[in-house]
Structure formats: C-alpha cells, structure tokens
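Quick log. Single chain, no ligands specified.
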Amino acid sequence: MASEVIPFSREVQFPLKGCLPDPPSGRTIAEPARQAPVIAECDVAVFGGGPAGVCAAAAAARAGKRTLLVERYGCLGGVSTVAWVNMIHTLYGTDRKTKIIGGLPEEFLRRLQRMGAAKNRAADGETGDWVICSETAKFAWDDIAVASGVRLMFHTWLAGAVRDRRRVTAALVESKSGRGAIVANTYIDCTGDADLVRRAGAATTLGNPDGKCQAPTLVFRVGGRGEKALALGQVQAELFKTTMDYNGERYPCYLWGNAGIWNPAEQMMAAARVLNVNAAEQGDLTRGELEARYQLRWILGRLKTLPGWEKTYLLDVAAGLGVRETHRIVPEQLLKREDVLHGTIFGDTIAQGTYPVDIHAPDAPGIVFQHLDGTSVTVGGDARHTRGRWDGEPPDAPKRTTLCWRVPYGALVPKDLDNVLAAGRCIGADHAAAGAVRVMINCMQFGQAAGTAAALLAPGAAARDADRPALRAALRAAGAPLL
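-> predicted structure:
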C-alpha cells in the first residue's frame, strides 16, 4: 500500500560486521600465466561511461578517431542515471549573463530539453541550474555516443593495465565473456576513482590530507508529497532531532532534493548519507550501500510523521551510492583551492565553472560551502546556517565579483604516464578544489577536453606535449566559450 511504512528489521545489528567477509589473512594464490586475447584495438579507449566518459568518447570520435567506451553498467550516464543525481548546474558565470559553458555539456541539456526532460530553475528559463529526468537521460547519453560513432562495451570491468616504462600498452578487462585486452594509442580514465591510473602503477591522492573522503549519498524518490509539505531544510532539522532506530546515532545530514519535472508531488531526495566510507574499497563500498538503505528506511518512516509528507511512498532507489570523492591523479599541474576561489587565469584553460567549494564532512554531519563572491555557509546537522567570509573580510564587506574559476589542461595529465589522460572527478586537484570541480557540468567539460586532446595527439606523442593553443581552438570550435 502507498502509505505503508517499511520497518527496520530488529534482526540486524549495527555496526554491520557479520555480513562482511573477514579481513584478508595475508595468504596468496599464484595465478597461472595466461595470454589475454586482444578483444579491441582503437585510437582512443575511454574507461567509465559517466558524463565525463561519454563526452570524452564523443569528442574523440567526432574528431575521426576510432574510439571505444567501456562501461561497467548497462547504460551510460554514471551518477546522472545510475545514481539518480538529477541536478545539472548552470552554464553561466556568476553574473548570470556571461555564458561560460557550451559544447557537449550544453548539447546534452538541449537534447533533454527537446525530450521534455530538462527544466531550468531560473525565471528566464535559461541562466539557472537544471533539473533533469535521470531515466530519460539514458536516452540522451545513448544518442550522443551512438550518433558520434563511439563503439560501446557495456557490462565490462577494468581489471588491470600493462605498462612499458611511461606508456600503457594494454588495458585488461573482465566481462561475462571472460578476460580480454584492449589496445589503444591513448587511454582516458573516466572511472571516477582513477582506476586505470592506479592499475598502471601511477601515483594518486586519496580524499583530504588525512586520507578521508567526502561522505557519499544514496538517492531515492518518493511520491505523494503534499502541496504544503514541510520544506527540505525543515525536514532535515526534524530528522536530526531524534536518533536513528537502526544504530542509535544522529542523522548524518546534509539533505537536498528536487521536485519531479512532470509531477511536483514526486520528490528526489539525496538524503541517505553514510560516513567513513572510502568508495574505492570494496568492503567500505559494500558497507556503505547496505547502511544507506537501512538509513533510507528510517528516513521514510520519519518522513511520514511530518506535515505534508504523511502520504508519501517509495518510488525507487538509485542503483548505487553517489560518490563525491576517492582517488585523484597526481597531475602535471595541480588545481588548488586558491585557484578556484580566486579565479586564477591559466594559459591552457579547458573548462570553466561557478560551483562553490562544497565539502561534505567525511565523518560527521554537516557541510561547508565557499562561494566565489567571498561568502561561506556552514550547514550543521540541525540545518542551521552559519554565514561568514572565507576571504577574511567583514560580513558587510562588498562581495567579490569573480566571474568563474578555470581548470588548466595540465590537471588532466597524470605526471607518471605519457599516453593516459584523466577526466571527471579524478582529475588533479587538491581536496578543496575537487569539492568545486567534481560536479557533472564540470566533468563533462573535462571529458570533452580530454577526448579532443587525445584526437590531436600525434602517434607516440606524450599527453603533456599536446598543442594547447590548438586544443583550446578546437574546443571553441566545438562550442565551448572559453574566456
């Protein structure tokens, strides 16, 4: 029934231990030597079919390169589809007049708009953030990849890499068909976790300076929200007032969401947030997925006690956690917090954005935003907003007028490898800068830049030696309004 509360099972004990394997004993098994069949040869091989990966593959294919895109799920889109994150941030600068993003990111949104599956939140219907339908997004991503001439390989996992000095000579994959090798001139790591770079033995950094990662969130959708339902900020405050029945702890908020495009009684909620998770580790990821679903069940029960939410019912749950942070490459040029907040201008800029530095505490409730205008907002578990300035100015000082931040091409180039690029949230940025550049509208730009750069590289050339003025010219020709 629509009004049914999904109860927590008292049979389950927290913290979750008995359902996870024992720690490794240290014992090893020698694998027999074997030959991996070469199952694909191409100019550019892209690993990870999320927003960055599709844009990387499409850009390379449109430039005439034989391009293969390898994806572990059965659809493209990553967090925009599988994790049900349905917010795409603005194409415009902080003045809401200057367009700073175009190209493939805008093409994706316009395709969805034509399908009736994207709605801009600004009064002018153009300059604000976008809400999309994550299910329809699967169709848009398919169309971009297929129409561009990208070869697709679904249900396939990256398993390893073969390296000869500074070059990757093959990527090893596993699927229902068994093990195979993919040979390419250039490889692009869009896995989110820098999986290819790590498998190739190159250096990465993990999370914050203490090695802790921003807390991931499991998204779900409910129907039946009333017209005068309690606002989400108030919902968060109410959830924080009581302990969660499954583990006796406080709700580790931050909570956000969007009403449905076609039915405002439907609500996407990014609400089940789990702490102390390194989503690049199988054990942590398993625990995180399980705990998020138990937390979700508690949220649903509490939600039905709040004004306007009494008749809500579960529509669906995302297939996986929305991961904010794990490994990032050690790049030729590191993007730093100061670069983002002060809008550093780079000669090889390949992407621009306005999303703030956004840090979800890895091991406690709460979130911190640092905006380009100099202001900061800390949201506690009780949903109270503490406002201030990150730039040291008094609260009543004039706001900064930085139009956008910029990302250099060098942040996409792993320092230890010649024929590998990275795009998506695993680019080379420090912890704070990564908090700003990790969202989808930015990852798409990184993907388009990486795919375009791969297409411009001469055979045998190193990624760091790319013709950067030619790259910027090609991106502009493809619709990116680089400043």
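The chain has a mean pLDDT of 96.
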